[in-house]
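User: Can you predict the 3D structure for this chain?
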Amino acid sequence: MSTAAVLRVAILWHFHQPDYRRGERAILPWARLHATKDYIELPALHREFPRLRLTYNLSPILLEQIECYRHGSIGDEHAKLSNWPQRRLSPVERRQLLEWAFVGNAERMIAPFERYRELYEQYQAGNVHTWSDTEWLDVSVWMRLAWLGETVRQTEAIDRLVRKGKHFSGDDLAVLCSTEAELLEVMLPRLRGLERCGLAELAVSPYHHPILPLLCSTDVVAESDPGMEKLSPSFAWREDAIAQVERAIAQIEPYRTPTPLGMWLAEGGISDDALSVLAECGVQWTASDRTILVRTLGSDAPTLHYRPYRWKEAGGKQIIVFFRDHALSDAIGFVYSSWDERQAVRDFLERLRSIRAVLIAEHGEAFLETAVVPIILDGENCWEYYRHNGAPFLRALYDALTTDEQIQTVTFGQVAAQAATSPATPVLRHVVPGSWIEGSFRIWIGHREDRRAWELLRDARVCFAERESFLSEDARETAYRHLLTAEGSDWFWWFGDDHRAAYRSAFDGLFRFHLAEAYRAMGVPVPAELTVPIMTRDSTSGEHFGAMHPATPPSEFPRDG
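Assistant: Here is the predicted structure, written as structure tokens:
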């Protein structure tokens, strides 16, 4: 079969967690838990398939937190409470431990393990008052075992704990904690190893994961969503967008080999201003969602996103832009977890073969030389909904992608390098701004709580601009770093009534904490309004801090793993 007959498929896994730190404590444990369950697991599975090419996009603020965990400079309540055998738990600590003991998807992360399910059912029935140290130690081990990937559970030390199942000892818990520490040590080296062998490409997001178009100017919503109320006066700090990009590049460069530098913008949010910033900073490719291309071209043709585009402005700056296949990406993220793995992979491959057939029918076989199917999604959140943390599905998928003669996996940088010099690459002079969620920025600036947060951020940023030249270098950097942190997308994701989760109020507190710390570093009294929650009682009602997802009632648990 000729090379031209091969359909290229580019898959990007995005690894991200916001800055959960408040001093030496991480308010939420997800950076650590997703590292031991997902950020370790995906590269481990990748290594089993030497013909597979993937792109991993890393958020710098995630890597920074992993480094802090490695060096012991931060901890979190989940880890602290579950590592207690050297002393007796107080009644208060027992209540706190229970808030963390059963987080995760109950069907996939609790029900398959007989002892863990038994403890959860006792907890649901209100019978924890009968627990002895044996039960408390068992739940302390399982709440950490459940957050390990399948390949880690197959190692000798962890497999022994899983098979033992109950009546754990303090030594068992020590083995588990030691394994977690080792996993945090190898996370980045494992990714770098794949990259050095040519199996993977490492891309990066702006440092604190901001919605970059909104940093350039919140007025961008006038085009992306004309019906949305604009912030007045606007937030418009293009220099912050540049700082977020430059700081991210500085962190990732030591870990990359010389390949085209790629940057996935938070939530796939792009605009002309944001693309200009990327190009100015030397980023060579980025990506967004098919919805943005449809709105930009005014066409809903089914194959228009199966090729890279060159965005180019009048001044000559340019960057390659990909537009992800929304349906295929979301099928992995939200659909296939409830399917039989073989059926899911068969469906996925049939869709790819159909795309290939349509491209050949419409454009000829030679078109495949420049075509690509971009698949982009988060690399952590979906796997707890899959059987065995997604390992059976991913193994079947990777095997199919690397053995099908009509398909070739590639990295985004490989395609971008070709597209940058090819006269066949179509040129965009303008993109309609938006994100990968309905082509809009509404989630991050559409609700009154969002706009209140932007107002507080704008006031702090104006204060910094007025005082910056009078601050010492250390004070200036400290204040600015807290402001850049407050610009992260995650705080705004949870403001408003778009989403519900048990820990939403923690994001409100962290956002206001960073603004308050910025004022303190500037030597300015912290405004009293930063002591008042942004989230209203209605938008936080029903919260039970610590439960990551609603748990499935025990009566609905499958009895077989």
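The chain has 26 helices and twelve strands. Residues 448-540 form one domain.
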